[in-house]
Structure formats: C-alpha cells, structure tokens
Amino acid sequence: MERFICAVDVGTGSARAGILDKSGGLRGRAEHPIIINRPKPGHAEHDSEDIWSAVCFAVRAAREKAGILAGEIAGISFDATCSLVLRDFDGGQLTVSTGSDDRWDTIVWLDHRALEEADECTATGHCVLDFCGGVMSPEMQSPKLMWLKRNLPESWARAGYMYDLADFLTFKASGSLARSQCTLTCKWTYLAHEAEGWRRDFLKLVGIHDMLERGRVPNKASPVGADLGPLTAEAAEALGLTVNCRVGAGLIDAYAGALGVLGGHAGDLQSLDRHVALIAGTSSCVMAMSAEPRPFVGGWGPYFGVALPGCWLSEGGQSATGALLDHIIRWHGAGGEPDAATHRRIAARVMELRAGEGLDLAGRLHMLPDFHGNRSPLADPHAVGVISGLTLDASFDSLCRLYWRTCVGIALGVRHILEALNENGQPVDTLHVTGGHAKNPLLMELYADATGCTVIEPRAEDSMLLGTGMVAATAAGLFPTLAQACAAMQQGGRERQPNPKARERFDRDYRIFLEMHRQRQVLDAIR
Asked: Contact at 8 Å (CB) between 442 and 270?
C-alpha cells in the first residue's frame, strides 16, 4: 500500500491542510478560516479550540479531495504562526485577553501589546540577545509572557501549560508535551547550540523565572521532524485519520516555507548561503541558511538546527507587507474591500498606466513601509510608515499609483535586508519567493528588479505545506533523515532574471528610501 503524509499550515486567518506523496506531490488541499479577536489597538487574539476545529475540518476535506484512505496516511506534522497559547492546570482554555473571556487563550504573533516589556528585555544586554539581532521584538514570547504576568496575574496564577501554537497542535494530536527546537529557539530564547539551552538568569532578570515549570516547558527541545508518537484515539477520530499515523515535531510557518523552497539544497551546504527564502504574505520573512553562524544587526538568529539539522538560520523580516497593501486599499477613498479581485483590478490598471509612463510611474511618490514597525534591519518596533509626494487626486488611478509605489517600498525593504546580509558575509544572489506575494505580478517583478537578484518562483503549489510534509515524512520513517526527505520531495522552480534597464531607476529609489529613513530619525529626535 502506498503511504502518504498530511501537512497542516496554520496562518493568521486560516488553517490549511495538504495530503502529499513521497515525491512531494500535493494530492489534495483544503482550507478553513479561523477567528481573530482585536479587543484593543495592538492586541490580537485567537481561540485555540477554534483553530483545532479548523485544522480537523481542513484535514478531513483534504483527504477527501485526495481520495486517500485514512489508513494510508503515515505521518502528520504542523506548522503555525508563532502565537502563544495559554492553558490552565487542567488543560482548559485560559484567557490572555483584557476582556477576561477564557475563549481567547492565544496571543497572535503580530500582537504588539508587549512593546514596553520588549524594550526592557533589550535593556538587559543579556547574551540571549546575541541570537535575536541584539534587540528583543514584541513578537517574541518572553515579552508577551512578561505582559501576561503583570497585567493578567490571575491568568498567570492559574497557568499550567504554555505553548507555541505549533507545539500546542502536536500536543492536541499526540498528547506529547515535547516542544520543537524551532519554536523554542526562535521565540523563547532557547539556545539550541549550547549544552544547557535555557538561560535561567535571563528569565529571572525579566521576572518570568517560573515560566519553565508553570508552562511545563521541557529542559530539552525536540529536533524538527522527531517522532513524537502516534495520534491519540481522540485526535485520530477528530482528524479522520488512524492511530497508526505518527506525529512529527513541527515548526513555525515561515520556517516550513524555507524548507519547502530551500530544502533541495540541503546536500550542498557550501552553496546554500547564496540562496535566500522570502516567505511573503501578511508579513514577510527573509530566511538565510548557512553552515556557520552569521549574525547580523537587526536580524533574528542565528538559530541552530531550527529547519535543517546542523544548519544555522538567520531571519530578517517586514512586519506588514500584504497587510500594508490591504491597508492602503481600505484607507484610500477609491479603495473599498481589499479582496483578491480588487488587488487584481489594481495590478491590471498599474500595468496599463506603466505602458504609457514606464518605470517613472508616480516617480515622485515614495513610501517607507514601516506601518507596523521595522523588524529588519533596523529592529525598531516603534518605527512608523512615511509617504512623500501626495496630491489632492482621489481617483482610482491615484490609488493605483500609491499601490504601485507601496509595492516598490516593500521591495526596497527586502533589498535593505539583503544588503545587511551581504555586508555580513552572506553572498546572496538568488531569492526564492513563496506565499501570497507569488500571485502578485507587480511584487514578483519588483523583487527581481529592485534587488538585482535572480528570483525563483517555486513550482510547488504550497511551499509551506511542502516543507511541513517533509517534516511529517521524516517522522513517519519514510526517509532516514530530514535532509533526505527534503532532497526527495523538493519541486524546483521557475527563474525570473532582473531587468538591467530598471537598475538605474531603482538604485535612485533606494537612495531616496535610505534618506527617508535618515530623515525620519532626525524628525523623531527633535524635542
């Protein structure tokens, strides 16, 4: 009997599931929305039981579409956003919300309620900061846990379990309290390259010394793809699978995408550092792997063994990219609801306008896309967006011009990150783009032309599911190692070369982009 695997990807707005074969082919895919609660500015919350229900719906639907029997699914794994799940001593839901409803037990990754706590972590100067770019982000779990302890002391006192979302899902599936090396290293200040991963002095310094015991967080992380055991009978029934299905230690969604597009280079670590993954959707992550640690200011990491075993990974990113384009559409008087049809309509009109005006379209309109802070390379969560060159024009065409130049600003932000990597010895020349942006023709063109990189658009329909499928296949024993699973299941991609005629235009835009950063700092410094 042929054996298949199930991959689950939980994003900000939905849970997706895919059934894949041993060669990485996607046989069936399904998606189900999840709820998000925004009780206050900067706060965003999930209901973890709603997420689990969406996962179960998506898995059942994907298997039905694939026409695969439950008994043919040998392994399952999960990737998810780096959201924080809180449970009480009995495993029940426990509120993280100022509204006190226990239903809202998960702080969403993009939640920025813990800005002050993040600044306090940075001010410690502790060595754990050497592995998150020297600056603690409010998107990490330490500041969020500090906020919970200070602002919701009753929830902290009742807490019995704390999970990154991917680890919560493996617990729901297998009953295992193991935590992934990816989640703990990237978001919980665990140092996977050291014999003693936890720096308890740091936890004490920031007031969460009891986090490990209270959250039932293990002293040792589990490698990505480790077999955590079979599905429990309850989980197997809910997912429409069997107890013969093995559960693999999962990973954060962007890291799954990095595996999906870069895993094919796992056998050649010496050239791997030329290739960078751009996981681009609501936000964007730039993932760079190397055989040696390569820290860079404003980048997260380097993290050891968080995707490929024995490999270091550094991450840069932009906190709002797809979300920024949605915001621009809502914000403009000629915009409306930023659905897929609206994005396509705007992109088509931009192409028409450019047919007449070329790359000089809206050439005096410039954008700093830091509307939700600057994750990299400035590592400034307090940064704000800047637009220069607005007029009184409120037509649909003015929206299209603003949208186009927002896309330019997003692409220049990627160039800013890549230059920081290059200055630190990471000789990047190839950008593998996956996620929602791969469907945006303007962004795909700009990622090549504005950065000067060769852009690879993966042939895989869903690189996040492919990467997580590689993990599941390893846990199921279909391959001896994760690296071998990556090599066997990788799908390759289509190349796009930068347009040399566009170089001068975007070099000028980039100089303006850097000058706008400088001027914003000058304005912020005026007292």
From this structure: no
- What would the pLDDT profile of 223-278 be if each residue is shown by its tens digit? 999 999 999 999 999 999 999 999 999 999 999 999 999 988 877 777 788 999 99
Burial of 252 (0-12, 13-18, 19+ CB in 10 A): buried
For residues 375 and 10, which has the higher predicted lDDT (pLDDT)? 10
Q: Which two tokens stand for residue 73?
A: 């699914």
Cβ atoms of 76 and 231 within 8 Å: the answer is yes
* Nearest C-alpha neighbor of 190 from the set 164, 168, 220: 220
Map residue 134 onto helix, strand or coil. coil
**Domain 1-526 class, CATH top level:** alpha beta
Whether 170 and 78 have beta carbons less than 8 Å apart is answered as yes
Q: Is 93 helix (H, G, I), strand (E, B) or coil?
A: strand
Per-position DSSP letters for 32-81, written without gaps between them: EE---B--STT--EE-HHHHHHHHHHHHHHHHHHHT--GGGEEEEEEEE-
Nearest to 308 by CA among 183, 186, 182: 182
- Among 505, 146, 455, smallest CA distance to 354 is for 505
Alpha helices in 358-497 (DSSP H): 396-423, 441-449, 463-475, 482-489
Residue 301 and residue 468: Cα distance in Å, rounded? 21
For the chain, the domains span: 1-526
What is the DSSP secondary-structure string of 181-238? HHHHHHHS---TTSSS---HHHHHHTT-TTHHHHTT--SSPBPTT-EEEEPPHHHHHH
Q: pTM to 2 decimals?
A: 0.89
Nearest to 468 by CA among 260, 267, 306, 246: 260
- State CA 475 to chain mean position distance: 22
471 — phi, psi (to 5°)? -65, -45
- Asked if the model's pLDDT at residue 360 lies above 90, the reply is yes
pLDDT tens for residues 424-478? 888 899 999 998 899 999 999 999 999 999 999 999 989 999 999 999 999 999 9
Structure token digits, residue 59: 């898995």
Query: Is the omega angle on the peptide bond into residue 302 within 30 degrees of 0, that is, cis?
Result: yes
| CA separation for the pair 311, 290 (Å, rounded) | 6
Question: pLDDT tens-digit profile of 198-232?
Answer: 999 999 999 999 999 999 999 999 999 999 999 99
Neighbours of 33 (CB within 10 A): 12
Whether the ω angle into residue 377 lies within 30 degrees of 0, i.e. cis, is yes
